[in-house]
Write a structure and sequence with these properties.
Shape: globular
Strand content: 15-25%
Order of helices and strands: EHEHEHEHHE
Helix content: 40-55%
Number of helices: 5
Radius of gyration: 15 Å
Number of strands: 5
Low-confidence stretches: 118-124
Length: 143
């Protein structure tokens, strides 16, 4: 069974991407890996005190993202009877999605055209654009 990776966030485009992926997965007997990336850099905290608290904060962020972002997408896959896995990680979205695609031996990546990061991506380039430029597998960008 082939695997596809679907990058998700809290946007309507992300929901459409999951619906698109689920439809394709049903037709092709694919497994879906739903991926949410929480923006994070190891250089975001400088003091030893802040670094001590970062581990607990990261775990809370993962739990919140799993509940608020991943769970609604899991419901879409489960209603359709599509095999799925969920991954929430900290990092840079495009790099992390590419890493997970490699780890999962994915044959395809699907993402929404616009995410929840707004102006920052408009200025610095979108996750979808970076994925399309750097992925070793086809990337579908869902409007």
């Amino acid at each position: 069974m082939d695997t596809i990776v679907v990058g998700v966030d809290n946007s309507e485009a992300s929901t459409r991407a999951v619906e698109f992926a689920v439809d394709r997965a049903q037709r092709n007997h694919w497994k879906i890996v739903l991926v949410h990336v929480i923006p994070w850099t190891p250089f975001s905290f400088q003091t030893p005190s802040e670094n001590e608290h970062r581990h607990r904060e990261r775990q809370r962020e993962i739990e919140a993202a799993t509940e608020q972002v991943i769970a609604p997408m899991v419901e879409i896959a489960e209603r359709a009877g599509v095999p799925h896995e969920e991954i929430v990680r900290h990092g840079k979205a495009s790099e992390t999605i590419l890493d997970i695609s490699t780890e999962a031996d994915a044959v395809h990546i699907i993402v929404g055209r616009t995410g929840d990061s707004g102006l920052r991506d408009a200025v610095f380039g979108s996750v979808a654009n970076r994925l399309a430029q750097h992925a070793n597998v086809p990337v579908t960008v869902v409007p």
